[in-house]
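hey all, quick one before standup. I had two proteins in the batch that finished overnight and I want to keep them in one place so we stop losing track of which output belongs to which input. First protein below, input sequence then structure tokens straight from the run.
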Amino acid sequence: MTDPTAHHATRRRSRWLPLVWAVPAAVAVLAAVVLFAIWLRAQPQVQEFIARYPGTTPLPEGAPVGLPAWLGWQHFLNAFFLVLLVRSGLLLRKGGRPPARWVRNNDGLVRTKNPPWKISIHLWLHFTVDALWVLNGIVFIVLLFATGQWVRIVPTSPDIWPNALSAALQYASLDWPVEHAWVNYNSLQVLSYFAIVFVVAPLAVITGLRLSSVWPQRAERLNRVYPSSLAKAVHYPVMLVFVAFIIVHVALVFATGALRNLDAMYASRDDASWLGFAVFAVSLAVMVAGWFAVRPEVLKPIASRMGTVTR
């Protein structure tokens, strides 16, 4: 007879085997990129290019200076909701029998002709946090344009493309571009933030909406044009883009002057004190606690206030 313990151990080893090769391969690729970028920067033509395009595109006249306090709160809430979305998304992708199921009460503010779906409690969490994340995003967009902060993350000059290439080359060669985020982001940051806010985030919302219970299932023509298989194929890679962005973003925050960057984002001041770091540390602790709080004994009492929870 086959030993189930040995079988599970073999499966665990096979699951981690790709990482044994992927990590050294990734390190080797990164080292090759850095060496190639350093060689490129030594070429006279490239030096002339960087001198002409230092990596930052001037902002339009009258652009706001500094980061307002509301942006710090938005930054924290966005990160917190993304952590919960990734956590619940991974649980959903893992599959298996859910610890509980939830069904919406159909006698409250939201009433539908057809009976509501019974879904797993992890899917309930994903949909609930998704709604909060979208609401937070709407507030962010409104404040962004109401306060003029939009000019900091929306490209306003064609020179942003060569400047972004210059900034990428400077990052890759480990000789960071000169920047002062309190006044202006470098061009690569502008393109990255613009893509996340106006491309990747809407893709997450559109694909998530298609996979949710609020999507009209009987709209046959619409469902043929936009099948759920397409939404599934896009939704998970979008999550991976968010994860990759967060990893790179946090790494660069610490590598390019942690205290000053954190002071600007979390304390709304152009300084290098420990206040911003302290606020960041507290927010990080909250996000870690949120990650580990995604447990049936925590989710069930909350979900029961919004519907009926069953096994």
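OK second protein, same deal, sequence then tokens:
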Amino acid sequence: MSVRRGLTSPGGPWRLGHGLIALPLVLIAAITVIDINTPTTIHLGPFLVAAPAITASFAGPGVTGAVGVLAVGAQVIIGELHGGLLTPNHQAQIAALVVISVLVTVFRYLRDRRGRQLNQVRSVAAAAQEVLLRPLPHRAGPLRIASTYLAAEAEAQIGGDLYAAVPAPGATRLVIGDVRGKGMSAVGEAAVLVGAFRGAAYRNLPLPALVAHLGNSVYWNTTHLDGAEPESAESFVTALVVDVHHDGPFIEMVNCGHPPPLLLLRNGTVQVLEVAETALPLGLHAPAESDFRVERFGYAPGDLLLLYTDGVIEARDRTGTFYPLIDRLTSWNETDPTALVRRLHHDLLRYAGGTLGDDAAAIAIAAPSGAPR
């Protein structure tokens, strides 16, 4: 499950509401008939400007311009029947209607062009998301997996949060991380780490060696490729690398300054998987394999593992209160990973009023109840 903020295409409203064209046409006809049949001292012609203005709200520039021409034509007819077109009053009304119709049509054209540009940008963002954040497999061995991603940027689909999963001997290996900062530099750092993680999958490295490889990849990228950018000199990535073993099952992890995962036990309680020794975030220095310590936790069939980034727990409501993730999980008592991430996704947006201050990602992993111990 991933975020897709829909954007209506420029022609969409017209296709959906083409029947609305009757409204400005009826309006033009009604104003024309009423004005012709009222005394010359009463002028209803200026109300014709409402026709192109209304049309611009649901139709494209071509239809808006056509309605504007009809409105001007109606004003000409009214002027001809009410004292002639050469009267200053009717000339002023016609001129004003022409100007406003042109402005409304131009505005609609610019709006549609902007919409097309946004569609192009979002299509590129969607493609980038598919490359950087490939959808996680719904199943990996006996494991069931679901994920969600919410970008903080209003017009973006990806940001500085990352996740990925690869197969490992007898296990599924996952990484989840959060790049310091926002924007394209954060996306670039995320791409470096995810690329290094996937690229090392075939080597089946032990966890400490893999995390050292990831740390060196991020550090080398920062110091050799992005060293000219002041922001990059202070960049780092908090990350959690986890092996979820299929037989057992049990969990092995290395935590590099990342929020600890949560284990939703079958009895409805939530266990925080705190490691005894948290490593430094990646990218601050060139690490060695000895810098990282693997810790193991039990993971019984029917339990649900939740990995997440700090954008989840640092989301705030209108009073500034942080999102109570553990309280929510305890009250929900979900056992299905897809149901959990979907509920978390919607509840988090509702809690934060629809807009997050930081990117947020979450992965839920469950072993079927019949999985071997």
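Flagging for whoever picks this up: The longest strand covers residues 171-179. The CA atoms of residues 261 and 273 lie 6 Å apart.
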